Amino acid sequence: MRPPVRALALCATAAALAAPAVLTAPAQAASAPPRTGFEVSNGARWTTQPEEQALLAAVDRGSARVTLSGIGTTKQGRPLQLVRIADQRRTENTVLLICSQHGDEPSGREACLTTVRDLAYAKDKKTLDFLARTTVLVVPTANPDGRAADTRGNSDRVDVNRDHIALRTAEGRAMAAVVRDHRPDVVYDLHEYGATPPYYDKDLLALWPRNLNTAGRVHAEARTLSESYVRPGAEDAGFSSGVYGIWTDPVTGEPVKQVAGDGQERILRNTAGIKHSVGLLVETRVDPLTEAEKKDPALNNRRRVGTQLAALESAFTYAHERRGRIGAATAQARRAGFADRGPVRLGGADNDPAEPAETIQDPPCGYHLSAAQYADVGDELALHGVASRRGAEGAYVPLRQSRRALAVLLLDERAAYRLTAGRPDTTC
């Protein structure tokens, strides 16, 4: 197995999860790093919002490499926050963790909170070298209202992971601004799923951007992240893994049915790819695997979080070992749109070729928006980082820009999740 970048920090966390006894607060040294409610209870309960806020405040005060900032507020008034972890002001690449977009999927949030703490206080050489060259950004709870209610959606019952194009939610808008402003090389999205034995019951499932507008090298890097790092890393730690959205025959391992995981652009892993980041969705199994886990929910909870941590460590190893290849792939993808060449796909996926009607072979030069249209969608275009030019009669969105394909998906009348139908400019 490749040497893990964050080995000492993760080993400490894994040991805490597996410990038979709980270390109570009075027994901790005054200078000890803070612990989550999940850790203190040995997995018997999830970390509460006040405990999360206390931990984030503590690491912000206690570690010079941590910066905690607000990026928005939910409809119910809960903070949306971003943690930045790095030992240098500028680094070579950036990894963004999006944790628990679905409020009833807590294991990703727990893994993110302990990861923030472990990176904040790490002293081992491997981790320090990683943080000297990599900025880690973390949205610890991407759906605080859903977390409070233990619901998949937010307080308006909107699935935040289906709002990365329309940006109608405070949560979706906050994440779009983070991606625009920080241009992460890797976007890693942590989720959980319900098993369907015997076809769909792995400890961990992963999936890259399937959207056909993801640049070839970015797509290849995302598959490498999944198939050569995250899944093998989970398996080396003793967990089973598979591809998200594909039922497989338990005997032959052959695909049986696709039940999820298409190329629709409004899902974060696909949006990330279209925005030229190496995106990955990870899902850990909620359901208990053994009789022991059925009898002891804390044991099952520790397995869920442990799976997330093992996969996440491998993602950091990927970012460290392949930083040059990742940077070259994302930089090339960001430049390509300025050439304004090539088709844009309105549908299909990397395992489902686009139909002729789903392909714009020769896109227009840009799209004209009326004043009313621009008033309605101008903020969303800006949040997406799509360039536009204001004029006396509205605005013009040229396609000669970094986010060329995204502009088409946002403004073409044929796009499934468009913001509005712009008037094509065919004068080029």
From TrEMBL:
<protein>
    <submittedName>
        <fullName>DUF2817 domain-containing protein</fullName>
    </submittedName>
</protein>
<feature type="active site" description="Proton donor/acceptor">
    <location>
        <position position="283"/>
    </location>
</feature>
<keyword id="KW-0378">Hydrolase</keyword>
<feature type="region of interest" description="Disordered">
    <location>
        <begin position="341"/>
        <end position="362"/>
    </location>
</feature>
<dbReference type="Pfam" id="PF00246">
    <property type="entry name" value="Peptidase_M14"/>
</dbReference>
<keyword id="KW-0732">Signal</keyword>
<feature type="domain" description="Peptidase M14">
    <location>
        <begin position="45"/>
        <end position="312"/>
    </location>
</feature>
<keyword id="KW-0645">Protease</keyword>
<keyword id="KW-0862">Zinc</keyword>
<keyword id="KW-0482">Metalloprotease</keyword>
<feature type="signal peptide">
    <location>
        <begin position="1"/>
        <end position="29"/>
    </location>
</feature>
<comment type="similarity">
    <text>Belongs to the peptidase M14 family.</text>
</comment>
<dbReference type="InterPro" id="IPR000834">
    <property type="entry name" value="Peptidase_M14"/>
</dbReference>
